[in-house]
Amino acid sequence: MNFFQERGIKHVTLPHFPRANGQIVTIVQTVKNSLTKAAEEGIDLYVVLLDYRIQPAKDMPPPSDLLMGRKLRTFLPPHPGQLKPTFDVERAREALRKRQIIQNKHANKHATVLSVLH
Fold this sequence. Notes:
Layout: H1 3-7, H2 18-41, H3 45-53, H4 63-68, H5 89-107
């Protein structure tokens, strides 16, 4: 009995997307090669996996961003493009102004004008 039969694992293919199997094979091979090289060089395997997980795809954010909902901290300095804000700064400033106006209105609700001291 082989490994898959012992564990009840069945190989499922996607009939309408035959390229998906090739992509999966490529990903598995890339990770396998990276882990093998890391083991030979004495590099921590978790660092190698972290480096793989933070790499963005062509048109998708990195898997770590999708999984964790945030950027993960790494040992490498960030790419300058990653330091640019991904949100509209002007829209954030306008939202801040609106909040400040509302806060000011609530703060001045019970305020009185002080009389002039002589």
